[in-house]
Every structure is written in C-alpha cells, then in structure tokens.
Specification:
By secondary structure, this protein is mainly beta. The protein has one domain: Sandwich (Jelly Rolls). Helices cover 2% and strands 42% of the residues. The chain contains one helix and eleven strands. The strands form two sheets. Strands 1-11-3-9-6-7 form a six-stranded antiparallel sheet. The protein starts with 6 loop residues before the first helix and ends in a 12-residue tail after the last strand. 29% of the residues are buried.
C-alpha cells in the first residue's frame, strides 16, 4: 500500500508570488528557487474570482535573480471544472499556459523534475505576463519541493 508524504517534514514549501495589494507595484517574476537538493517541484498557481487572462512561463537559470535565464518547457494541467478540484485529464508539455477569467477562482499545476533542467542550470523562475498588469494582483503561486537529498527537521532555504 502506498502512502503520501508530510509536506512540512519531507518537503519544502516556497512562496513564489503572493497576491498583491491594489497600491502595490505588480511583480511579474517570482523569486528564483534552487532545485539542487530536490528531485521534484510541484508549482501551484491560483487566481481569484475574475482574474484576467495571465500567461505563465518558466525559465531555468544558473544563479539567483534569474542569471542567464533560458526558457523552459514544462508539464502542466489546469482546472477543468467549476468544482475547483478536478484537473485536465493529462499533463501537457508547453512553454506557456494561461489562467483565464472566470466566475470562480482558477488554478493550474506545473510539474518539474530536476533532471529536466539543462546541465549547469539548477535555478527556476516563474513569470506571469498579463493582458493587463492588474490581473496579476489576484494571483498567488507556491512551489512544493519533494525528493530531498538531505532530510532535516528544518530544511534550508532555496531562495537565497
């Protein structure tokens, strides 16, 4: 019988983009995070009710801050029903996907294995382009890292 894992003990959670206030300058790029000691990243992107269409892309980098950023192809799935808990039937490979406006919140899931990164590239950045920059204010994104090389009670930061 298989079992899941306890995120707070066997994984690492990274806040990539927090929802932003109405007077905040909109950040279109997430923090850069390092996958050097992690085998897999599941990136959860959620948009609030009425979120405008937002194109999401990713890049692999050789250092923090997006050093030598190169576009990255990734697997993703998006919410398929208004219930909020059903993803598309399959993960699609792409270099971009969009969250579109809806009467309920919308979300997407990106799956990335560390061995999909190019040699010398161990950092990842998520970018949020929008038809109108105000759309990004309603978006939040988290990365859940798993398959850690070194398991500790408190895992080391991956963003600095």
């Amino acid at each position: 019988m298989s079992k899941g894992f306890v995120v707070s003990e066997e994984g690492h959670v990274v806040l990539l983009l927090q929802p932003q206030g109405t007077t905040t300058t909109v950040a279109l790029t997430s923090d850069t995070f390092c996958m050097k000691n992690w085998a897999h990243a599941t990136i959860l992107v959620a948009g609030g009710k009425g979120t405008g269409q937002t194109a999401i892309t990713m890049g692999e980098c050789v250092g923090f801050g997006g050093t030598s950023r190169t576009a990255l192809t990734f697997r993703y799935a998006v919410e398929a029903t208004a219930n909020g808990d059903v993803l598309d039937a399959t993960l699609a490979w792409a270099s971009t996907f969009s969250l579109s406006a809806g009467s309920t919140g919308v979300y997407g899931v990106i799956e990335l294995d560390a061995d999909e990164l190019s040699d010398g590239y161990q950092y990842v950045q998520v970018n949020f382009g929008a038809n109108a920059s105000t759309a990004v204010k309603d978006i939040a994104a988290f990365a859940v890292l798993s398959g850690g090389r070194y398991q500790e009670d408190i895992t080391a930061t991956v963003i600095a």
